[in-house]
Amino acid sequence: MAVLETFARQRLGATREPWDNVLRRNVKVLRFGGVWRPASKSGWRHCAFPLYFASVCGSLLNIITLDIVRSWLLWGDMTEVTFALVSAMTNVNGVFKMVHCFRHCETYSRLVSELNGLVELQRPYCEGNGDLMAAFRKACRRAARLTIGCLTYMNVLGQMWCVVPLVSHVPPGSRESPLPLVSLPGLHRENRGWYLFAYLVECHAVFYWNFASLGMDMFFASIMIQVTGQLNILNIRLTQLRQEGSTEDQAQLPRSTGFNLSRNDQHQQRSANDFTRMYSELCECVKHHQAILKYLEFLERVMSPVVLTQFLCSVVAVCVTLYQITFNPEGSGVIKCAMFLPIPALQIFVYCWCGHDIMEAGLSVSLAAYSCAWVGVGQRVTSALRIVMCRAQRPLQLTAGKVYPVNRDTFLSLINASYTFYTLLRQMRNR
């Protein structure tokens, strides 16, 4: 009977909560993009994965090679060289993410398993408390919407990038026909075989870049959102700390002593039990807070080089894309650059937004500890609360290569840096 009830709940989706693997959606995206190894250590999927990875990575490397060749052939043409630089930097970033995950696959798997363990620590408290469960579900919804929304936007944009070369007009004296990413001098649509091959290879790179590069960004963003959710759950637990024992214990207290205690003695013993219970709950909160801090240190070690590379490549991409929109005389090039411009800015913003939320939730731990019912409790509880508040006042700040803090101020400074470099390029062109 219990088996049937469980099966029915699973079929109806009544109690489906992503406790077991909160990142399963992101892992599926990366696995589809050729970044994440298959779960099984044997079978045809495991054997075919290196070839799958090589095909995706090879497409991106092919675009980088074509960008270098085009820059060499058209050296001196500022517009063409800068357009090739945008494409090259974007694909270099994607290749770096893929290789980093491929080389450290065990570390990435540990990142997922430890996050699931972190969620499991506070699961018993969430299942019995509506506020805690709401905070957990809110984090899961935010991660799902961000992942699905960004990937949907990028896939629609990628399809537009692939369609624009087919519908764009080619001037009669043009040296080449347009392609989604890199046009090859001397390759025209009349040469259908080579043009079709180059077109399909570049469409392959555009399609899989969305899942490999942007999918990695959504992976780390989802982790940060889940960690923020765990901090919010911890804050609610700290706020709900009260000096009260269970009614059952209080009812059994006179029978368990075997003496006719006075009303004052009973009150003192109940207060002592209440202090002990509150102190025990506070100790559990402290342990979970320490577990979150330890996990954030591990997350920073894994994520730091990826975020630093993303910041550097995105700054260059935004700068050069602004230059292209300003000075590119071709209509199709302006359209493609205008469609591409939000992408590097979005990739920077996602990291900075999620990292800033972690910092704010971490600082809120101190206020949550102060907001509990600490008035009149024992010295042990107040001393522990002071320690928690002092530790929580240090910001939980992730960094990119120990250079940039991952927060909203960094996002503004990087956008300002992109505009500064753009102004420098304009001055160089005018001279």
Key words describing this protein structure:
431 residues; 2 strands; disordered N terminus; 78% helix
In words, what does this structure look like?
One of its GO terms (biological process) is signal transduction. It is a multi-pass membrane protein. The chain crosses the membrane at residues 49-69, 193-212, 306-327, 333-354. It is found in: Cell membrane. The chain has 431 residues and is mainly α. The protein has one domain (20-169, 176-250, 262-430). It is 78% helix and 1% strand. The chain has helices spanning 2-12, 24-32, 44-73, 78-103, 105-121, 123-127, 130-167, 192-239, 247-257, 263-327, 331-340, 342-370, 379-392, 408-430, and strands spanning 399-400, 404-405. Helix 3 packs across helix 8, helix 4 (78-103) packs across helix 5 and helix 8 (192-239) runs parallel beside helix 12 (342-370).
In short:
By secondary structure, the chain is mainly α. It is 78% helix and 1% strand. Strands 1-2 form a two-stranded antiparallel sheet.
State the order of secondary-structure elements, H for helix, E for strand: HHHHHHHHHHHHHEEH
Number of strands: 2
Number of domains: 1
- Share of residues in helices: over 70%
How would you sum up the global shape?
elongated
Strand content: under 5%
Q: How far do the termini sit from each other?
A: 82 Å
| Main pleated sheet | 2 strands, antiparallel
How is the largest sheet built, in terms of strand order? 1-2
Radius of gyration: 28 Å
Mean pLDDT: 82
Low-confidence stretches: 1-16, 245-261, 265-269
Count of DSSP helices?
A: 14
Helix/strand-derived class?
Answer: mainly alpha
Membrane topology: Multi-pass membrane protein
Family: Belongs to the insect chemoreceptor superfamily. Heteromeric odorant receptor channel (TC 1.A.69) family.
Subcellular location: Cell membrane
Transmembrane segments: 49-69, 193-212, 306-327, 333-354
